[in-house]
Amino acid sequence: ISDGRLPVGDDELGQLAESFNRMVLALNKTTVSRDLLIQEAKERKHTQERLRDSEEKLRNIVENSTNLFYVHTADHTITYVSPQCREFLQCEPEEAMTRWTQFATNHPLNEVAVQLTEKAIRTGERQPPYELEIRGKQGRIKMVEVREAPIIKNGQTIAIVGSLTDISDRKKAEEEKNALQSQLVHAQKMKSIGTLSGGGGP
C-alpha cells in the first residue's frame, strides 16, 4: 500500500477497499489540482509584479523626459498627453484634449506635418520625423521635431502615438549661423566689387 491504496478483493472488505481507493485517487487529484492552482496563482502574481515594474519604469521615463508624449485618434483628437504639455502647450493635460491642429501655427512647414500624419493614418506606415511650429495656450511659439507611429487594429489605424522634442534653440542657432554666413558672403562680394572698381590698386 505504498501508494496509499488497498488491495481489492471480491468480498465486502474488497468493496470497502475499492471505495477507499477511489477516495484516495480523488484526494490525489484534488491535491494535484490544488498544487496547480497554487503554482498558477504564483505565476500570475509574478507576472503582475513584472507588469507593474514595467509600467513604473515607463511612467518614470514619460514623466521625467524633456520630450512630450501624446496619443491622438485618427481624426487628430488628442486622447493622452504627458505632463510636459505644461511647458510645450502652456496648459494642463486635460486642457489639451482637443485636435492637435489647434496648437499648430500657420507656418508653411505645418502643411507638410499634416500631410505626413494623414499618410501615416491612411497607410498604417510610420513616416519620417518632421518639424512643426506650435503655439501654446498663452501664445508662446516653439519649433518641435515630431516622431510618431500609427497603432493598427484589424488593418485600420486607430491612433497615432508620438513625441515632441523642442528644437527652438537649435533652429535659432541655425538661423543665426546662416545669417552670419550670408553677411560674410555679402561682405566678400562688396570687397571684390571695390577691388575691381579701384583697378586692383591699394
Describe the model.
The protein is an alpha+beta fold. 50% of the residues lie in helices and 20% in strands. It has four helices and five strands; from the N terminus they run H-E-E-H-H-E-E-E-H. The chain has a five-stranded antiparallel β-sheet with strand order 2-1-5-4-3, sandwiched between helices. The termini are far apart.
Give a short overview:
The protein is built from 4 helices and 5 strands; from the N terminus they run αββααβββα. It is of the alpha+beta class. It has a 5-stranded antiparallel sheet, with helices on both faces.
The SS-based structural class is alpha+beta
DSSP helix fraction: 40-55%
- Described by the principal axes of the CA atoms, the overall outline is rod-shaped
Q: What is the helix/strand order? A: HEEHHEEEH
Please mark out the parts with pLDDT under 50 across 5 or more consecutive residues, or reply none. 1-9
Strand arrangement within the widest β-sheet reads 2-1-5-4-3
Give the amount of beta strand, in percent: 15-25%
Tell me the major beta sheet: 5 strands, antiparallel
Total of helices? 4
Mean pLDDT: 82
Count the beta strands: 5
- Computed over alpha carbons, the radius of gyration is 35 Å
Topology (elements, then pairings):
Layout: H1 12-64, E1 68-73, E2 78-81, H2 85-88, H3 109-123, E3 130-135, E4 141-153, E5 156-166, H4 168-197
Antiparallel strand pairs: 1-2, 1-5, 3-4, 4-5
